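Now for one protein, fold included:
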Amino acid sequence: MTQRRHACTPHGPSRERLPQMPSRRVMSNNPTTIRAARFLIAQLGLTPDDLLWEPTDVPTFAEYVPRVADAAGPGARRTYGTYWTHIITTFGDRPLDHVDATDIETFMRQIVDLRMIRRTDRGGHSTGEHLLAAMRTIYVHAIRDQILPPHHNPAAAIPKPRRRPSLRRALTNQELADINNVVATTGDDTPLDTLILRLHTETACRRGGALALHENDIEPRWCLLCLREKNNTIRWQPASPTLIQALLRHREQRGTRRPSPEPLLRYRDGTPITSRRYDGLWRRVGNQLPWAAAQGISTHWLRHTTLTWVERHFGHAVAHAYAGHTDHHNDTTGIYTRAQLPEIAAALSALVGEPHPLAPQQPISNPALHNAAR
C-alpha cells in the first residue's frame, strides 16, 4: 500500500499523468497580449529588433571613426577621409548616440559654406552629399558592430542633396583637336601628357584607372590593358597596337623595363605620377583655351566623348561594355545581350582607324567614318 500511494503522489514516477498547465509560450500567443505588446513597443519608439540588442558602452566619434576608416577601402578613404576628419574635429568628444539629425544637418550646412571653391564648383551639392554619406557610413558600422541599436541612424533621416544634371558632354572634333594641340605643344613633359590623353581617349578609362595601371597590365599579343577602377572592378580593355607600343616604350624608358606590379605612368626621373599631373594638365589647357576653363573641361569629358561616339555607331550594349559598366538595374535583357571583347575591339578599331587582333577582320565600309575617328 505504501508503494502504491507513493506512485500516485505528484513527486512519484507517474507525474506525467497529471494535467499539464498551459506553458508561457502558449499563453503568449494570445492575440490580445500580442496587440498590447506591439502597442507598448510602438509607444516607446522601439522595434522588435531593438529588444534583441544588448546595450553596451558607446564610444565617442574620436574613438570609433578611425576604426571605420581602417575598415574602408582605398576609394572610400580617398572620398570620405577629409569628411571623417571634420567629423572628429566637430563631434570628437561626443558618444555616437549623442548626436541627432538636427546636429548633423547643421554641420552639413557649415561644411558646405566653408568648402574650397574650385573651377568645377556647382553650389556645394557634392560636398553635402559626401559629408552625409560619410556620416551614414559611421552609423552603419556601429549598428553592424552592435554598438547602437538597429535603425539608430540619425543621418539616414536627412535627405541627400538633390544632384544637379551633369554639364559634361561629348567634345566636338574641333574641341578635341584644340585640346590635343595644346597638350602636345606646351608643358614640361609633352610625351607623357600626350600618352595620357591618348590612353583616356581610346579606352574611355577613368583617371583612377590610369593611375592604377601597373607595368604588368599590358598584354601585347592581343593588345589589351588591365583596368582597375571604381567598386574594385577589374577588366581587360582593348587598346590599339599604336597605344600598346607607346606604353611599352614608356615602360622601357622610365620604368623597370619588364612586367612588374609597379606603377606604369611615370615622370622622366622614374617617379610615378599622381592626380596632380592631371590638375596641371587641365590648368594649362584652360589657360590656353578660355572656353575649356569656362566649362570646366576635365579628363572625364574624354570618357563622355568616346562613349558617346561608340553608342551612336555601335549601340548601347557595346557602349555599356566599353565603359566597363556591370550594372543593368531594370534592364534584365542586358544581362543576356552584353557585348564581348571582339565587339569592343571592333568599336575601338573603327574609332582609331587601326586593325585590332581581336576585332573581326572586315573591310572598311565607311572611309569617312574612319577619317573622322582618326
